[in-house]
Design goal:
Elements: E1 2-6, H1 18-31, E2 35-39, H2 65-75, H3 91-96, H4 100-112, H5 119-126, H6 129-138, E3 146-148, E4 163-165
Parallel strand pairs: 1-2
Antiparallel strand pairs: 3-4
Helix pairs in contact: 2-4, 4-5
Length: 177
Amino acid sequence: MGCILDLSDLAEEPGERLGTDLVSYGAELRKNNSFLVILATPADWYGHWAEPTLPCTVRLESPDARALVTAEFRANYRGDRVTWLDRPEFAGIWKANPSARAAWRLADRLLRASGPEQIQAILDEFGDWHREVEKLLSRNRETGTTRNCCPLGSRSGPAPCCTEDSAGPSSRQPMTS
């Protein structure tokens, strides 16, 4: 039996002792024929707090995005959609080899599609990184609310442009005073 701790989306830098405490906890688990696996991204797993874990850290590269999408199709009994991935519209995505998280998001959207006629709309949405950045930047992690913000690059001047909304972004209109 083992434990998995997912630290792949850290909201803030961990405390000083986290690395030392994790190594100690892992050693205790090993005494009981168990183990601890920590999932983290290289962008999050660095610094003085992570140094004590370096001797037992195994670095794995993100798997191939196309292989992940193919595996998701087959795992969801939609192997018939694998041929969609050969379409020219996907060439840029496979060349960029997005992260595993992004590949899963693409697979999820393609699995929910009613048919191949929706592929272009899904790819347009998937490639709209401006929307994704806006969504990430507007989320308040403490309250779970989102801020309704003007689209990136559409606001000139120093006036605020965002309002809090617990229901999520519903308006893209600038605040007026």
